[in-house]
């Protein structure tokens, strides 16, 4: 397969243009949603049914408790109903899901990871797909957004311990943002040829004399929120490489646009909510620079592999969909690993070794370019606080971030946030490769075997969900350990983010002075960009050297 440079440049340019055009209007709308005081009829009904007082705001600890309780109940409900699938309507005559798979899937979808240890079309019926997994795609995406909204309030507010109301923020995000946008996206996908029905289709191959039953289902509606909410779990095992989920280049490019849409617009909402739009422009500038650099590097890695033997054979052939082309596959792979999406339109186990390393590096950056819905922005804001601390040390002043002192408590919370994910990834992968029975689930040999294990835990802890698909993770050990990695990788950072938000909200606002380090503009943006890359290099470079870098040098 030839890497078409002209197609690559054209698609990247179109994406940039579309994202620039919607950045301000969507960001403005998001800010209005979270700054408004009025509620719609549907929201008021939800509050009455849930027993929520929409006028009562919560402290950071109560906000966090609401996040954790809501997510725990979500996991329990999804687990139990999967186990009961055989007696539920819309089961497609499929039995209940086995406990290890049900447990892993429940955690996966509630944490916005969407790691799939099963073949969806032969394991999950329409009821589970539509009423459990698709619903969690909405709710887990909404949880990520409301956490960053709480952090922004903590930065913007002074002398208070209130960060808003989790249940109000959840309702507004679901009813005003995700539902209408997903409905519009589903219509576009239907027009583009994505399937939406409730029955299977019999296809007869007259030359071979056989009839094959192709499973159907409400694919377009699930595909829309899977992509828009940076979730990534596919209705079919082939995910966005399946023609029913992603039939052509238009739908594939549209999916990349949806992946980047909300995360890239949130910085504008951030700037508006803190009262300084320059802050939002600096953040989105860093996000955009990282995305463009990674996309170009991925294109280089794909183009440089033409005519070589990759993980299997055939250069850019095995594992690729001919209808997309290598250029679109490289753009999709970048977007899906720079966010917490995890959807794929090319088998990541088959892409060139250096490209595989870039997909891992994208996740190791913390998925901040632009990252998942909400999680990308709060991850970059944490790195901005680290950058302010470093700048403060350089000029000999107490670090300040938008009028708030960054003292010992704030830096301890920030440092723990930075360390949490690398510790989970490296410790889990290190233990696994020492267990012969566990590492045998990755059937490759040499550096690629280590890459498969490292990728799995990088994906799980960063709540991405994509995989080097050669590894089998449906057994008790890997299902459990990956499940724990997903839980810790999702909720420990949220604990620290909300604790930081509460600490900042209690502070008075300090007027800017001549010694205040500005947190906007190209100079601070360059510092933030450098900190983001260096933090990743220091944490993960040795592990990358043992896996994709070593494999790439051997080719």
Automatic annotation (TrEMBL):
Location relative to the cell: Cell membrane
InterPro entries linked to this entry: KdpA (IPR004623)
A single cellular component GO annotation: plasma membrane
Protein name: Potassium-transporting ATPase potassium-binding subunit
Annotated gene: kdpA
Function per UniProt: Part of the high-affinity ATP-driven potassium transport (or Kdp) system, which catalyzes the hydrolysis of ATP coupled with the electrogenic transport of potassium into the cytoplasm. This subunit binds the extracellular potassium ions and delivers the ions to the membrane domain of KdpB through an intramembrane tunnel.
Transmembrane residue ranges: 6-31, 62-81, 126-152, 173-194, 249-269, 281-303, 377-395, 416-435, 477-501, 522-541
Signal sequence segment: none
């Amino acid at each position: 397969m030839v890497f078409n440079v002209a197609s690559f440049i054209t698609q990247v340019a179109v994406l940039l243009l579309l994202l620039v055009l919607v950045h301000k209007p969507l960001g403005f709308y998001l800010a209005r949603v979270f700054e408004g005081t009025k509620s719609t009829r549907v929201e008021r009904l939800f509050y009455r049914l849930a027993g929520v007082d929409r006028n009562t705001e919560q402290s950071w600890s109560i906000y966090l408790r609401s996040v954790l309780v809501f997510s725990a109940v979500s996991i329990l409900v999804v687990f139990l109903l999967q186990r009961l699938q055989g007696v539920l309507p819309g089961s497609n005559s499929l039995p209940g899901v086995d406990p290890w798979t049900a447990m892993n899937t429940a955690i996966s979808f509630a944490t916005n990871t969407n790691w799939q240890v099963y073949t969806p079309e032969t394991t999950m019926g329409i009821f589970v797909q539509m009423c459990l997994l698709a619903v969690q795609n909405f709710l887990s995406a909404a949880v990520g957004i409301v956490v960053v909204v709480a952090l922004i309030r903590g930065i913007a507010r002074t002398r208070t311990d209130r960060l808003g109301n989790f249940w109000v923020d959840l309702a507004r995000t679901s009813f005003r943002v995700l539902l209408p946008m997903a409905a519009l996206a589903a219509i576009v996908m239907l027009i583009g040829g994505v399937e939406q029905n409730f029955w299977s289709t019999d296809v007869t191959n007259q030359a071979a004399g056989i009839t094959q039953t192709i499973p159907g289902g409400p694919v377009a509606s699930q595909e829309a929120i899977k992509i828009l909410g940076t979730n990534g779990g596919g209705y079919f095992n082939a995910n966005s490489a399946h023609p029913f989920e992603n039939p052509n280049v238009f739908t594939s490019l549209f999916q990349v646009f949806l992946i980047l849409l909300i995360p890239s617009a949130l910085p504008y909402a951030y700037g508006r909510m803190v009262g300084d739009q320059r802050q939002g422009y600096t953040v989105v500038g860093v996000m955009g620079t990282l995305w463009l650099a990674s996309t170009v590097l991925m294109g280089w890695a794909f183009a440089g592999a033409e005519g070589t033997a990759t993980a299997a054979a055939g250069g850019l052939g095995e594992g690729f969909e001919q209808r997309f082309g290598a250029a679109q596959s490289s753009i999709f792979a970048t977007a899906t690993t720079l966010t917490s999406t995890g959807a794929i339109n090319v088998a990541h186990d088959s892409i060139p070794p250096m490209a595989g390393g870039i997909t891992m590096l994208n996740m190791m950056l913390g998925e901040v370019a632009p990252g998942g819905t909400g999680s990308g922005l709060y991850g970059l804001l944490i790195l901005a606080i680290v950058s302010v601390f470093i700048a403060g040390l350089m000029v000999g002043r107490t670090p300040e971030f938008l009028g708030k002192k960054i003292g010992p408590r704030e830096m301890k919370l920030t440092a723990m946030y930075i360390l949490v994910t690398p510790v989970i990834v490296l410790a889990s992968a290190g233990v696994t490769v020492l267990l012969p029975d566990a590492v045998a689930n990755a059937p490759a040999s040499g550096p690629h075997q280590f890459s498969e294990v490292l990728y799995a835990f990088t994906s799980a802890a960063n709540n991405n969900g994509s995989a080097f698909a050669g590894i089998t993770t449906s057994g008790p050990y890997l299902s459990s350990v990956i499940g724990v990695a997903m839980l810790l990788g999702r909720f420990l950072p949220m604990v620290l983010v909300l604790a930081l938000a509460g600490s900042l909200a209690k502070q008075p606002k300090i007027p800017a002075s001549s010694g205040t380090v500005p947190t906007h503009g190209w100079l601070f943006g360059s510092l933030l960009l450098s900190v983001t890359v260096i933090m990743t290099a220091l944490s993960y470079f040795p592990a990358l050297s043992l896996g994709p870098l070593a494999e790439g040098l051997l080719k």
